Amino acid sequence: MVARWQPVHKGHQPILRALCTQSTHALIGIGSSNKYNMRNPFSLEERIAMLHLVLNKWQNFKLIPVPDLDDGPRWKALIKDLFGPLDLFITDNPYVAHLLADDYPLMKPVELIAKDDQIPIEGRKVRLAMASNEKWQKFVPKEIAEYIISNQLDKRFRHEFGLQTLALETIMKGD
Questions:
Q1: Is residue 174's pLDDT more than 70?
Q2: pTM above 0.90, yes or no
Q3: Rounded distance, CA 37 to CA 109, Å?
């Protein structure tokens, strides 16, 4: 599975757990590993730390940085090179599914977990709450909230990308 993990949130947590409990060895890609912007406000190192916090009970996974190449065919070749042969590729991204459909069996992340364990949260929602200085902590696991707060990543996000995030949301709503 490849995702951006910006940040790791409560919707990710059951999927990550399922990846590790249902796999002999899970390969977890950290997408857009080379990007730092409004949509990618946490560094690769910060996301690695967050993933380790959520996956602290498992040892059967490998984290793989996956840069954004802004070129679908090159990205597909990179994925095949980084991940090699796989039993299954997990994605909820229609474009990624289209790119990899001929190379890997595909599954949506929600198919890994029971309906009762599915938590419909998007990273955009967490970042919007963070930009608004609202209760963003309710959207992330406790250990992630503690990590973000203790490293002042929420304050950094608001300072660097808060206004831009709020402005884009206003534009998207048509207000």
A1: no
A2: yes
A3: 25
